[in-house]
Amino acid sequence: MIKNALGYLILMFFFLMIFSCGAKSEKTKIEKRDDSAIIRALNANNYEHALLLIEKELALDPKNLELSYLKVQALSEKASIDIYSLFPIVKMKLFDVAMTEWSDINKYTKKSQDDLQEAITEGGTVSSIDELDANEEKIKSTPLETITYTTAIEIQIGEDKYEKTTESYDVYGNSNAVTSTYFQKMCWATIIIESPLFFGMDRYFEYVGGQVDNSSSQADNCKEILGPQLEAFPENEQNLKREIKRAALQMIDHRRIQLDKKKNGEQIIKLAYALFESIPIIKKVPDLEDKNAEIVYTALELLENIRQKTRREERLGKNGRQQIGLLAGYLILGSIKESLFLEEINAPTDLLCQIRAEKVIKNYKNFLTGFRYLFNVIIESKISKKTKKRMMDVKADLDNAPEELEDDQKDNIHEFVEDISDDC
User: Fold this and answer.
1) Contact 74/36 with Cβ under 8 angstroms?
2) How much of the chain, in percent, has pLDDT values that exceed 70?
């Protein structure tokens, strides 16, 4: 879940920028209501008095969405969040990059990107998913009799280590086991098989081997010992072609894994560079204390009720959705702030090495809650069908995510961070 959340964070930044635009006008409209004691209390930052007045009004009119919206403002003040102070957050470099679909990432040195990409994907080139699907169909539909291949042979010699245990008994019947280590000279041939069915992805290997007299000449004996086996290869050509076909399909599966790693790696790279550029602003995000987070949860519940009962084009509906984006973003950014050793990050590649596993676990609920509310708004915004489908898939993952991490999931986070730290 956490791992997926890091990838989805990129998308959150893009939409948070959209949701934030125009919300400042709400303060101007509210201030015109000079006759409202609630507004005067809010403008005076007297959230306790404002909440008292709001609760009295809600007792008389519990379904009043305007009052619920005002309660959100009072709760934000109670959580020490000036909602309008969050607006500079969306001005950070992070969003500039997100708004251009990360095209600006090219300004960073290609070598730095390639180094990070290789570390994440474990090297190797990959194809597009469409190309892999097409090649897979070709492989499956290729008759065995039409499969062609070429072979090359490499002969090597070495030693095979093995152990032998002998057991003896003394006159009293006690067992005495002795293990001895032996080395047997061996030679083997690697048969390198290439076929058009592999589409240049890899090669397939067969091996034959045999023992060599330890006192004999190495090269001559290898050729003599392996000669008959090599001349007889393949013993059954139909079986070999089946193996070639099976190997080709395995190569396709391996490339799919590489492609997934590449996509995840690209997301992590974009996130790493964008987050690095945004660290000065992230440091200014108000600290996310536990008691304040609970207040934000309540505020988001109220805003979600407003979202469900209003249209996007309505003033209250629009501003309610915008504040969902800001408060959900605050939960996420505040959690990021606490989950990284920000002072130790001097380059984008430092980000993965400065993750605080315990803080990631502690902030799991904040990450999950922030993303859930955010994606509720994203899905109903004006986005392409393709993007909306991706968002629906993400939302399904978020909805199905556990409310709390199990011990094994916490262990996985610790192991992930430790594995990364080993390479830092």
Assistant:
1) no
2) 75
Amino acid at 236: N
Tell me how far apart the terminal alpha carbons of the chain are, to the nearest angstrom. 23
pLDDT at 94 over 50: no
Q: Which amino acid is at 19?
A: F
Reported residue count of the chain is 424
**CA distance linking residue 18 with residue 97, whole number of Å:** 13
Residues of the chain with pLDDT > 90, as a percent, come to 27
Residue with tokens 């950070």: 92
129/126 Cα distance (integer angstroms): 9
CA distances to 38, 75, 285, 288 from 42, in Å = 6, 10, 22, 22
Give the sign of the dihedral formed by CA 117, CA 122, CA 124, CA 127. negative
Beta bridge partners of 194: 150
In this structure, are residues 43 and 31 in contact, taking their beta carbons and an 8 Å threshold? yes
Helix (H, G, I), strand (E, B) or coil at 201: coil
Q: Where exactly are the structural domains of the chain?
A: 2-81+286-422, 148-245
* Cα dihedral 408, 414, 419, 422 sign: negative
Give long-range contacts, CB 8 A cutoff, 24+ apart: 365-368: 365/293, 365/403, 365/404, 366/288, 366/293, 366/331, 366/332, 366/334, 366/335, 367/2, 367/5, 367/331, 367/332, 367/335, 368/1, 368/5, 368/398, 368/401, 368/403
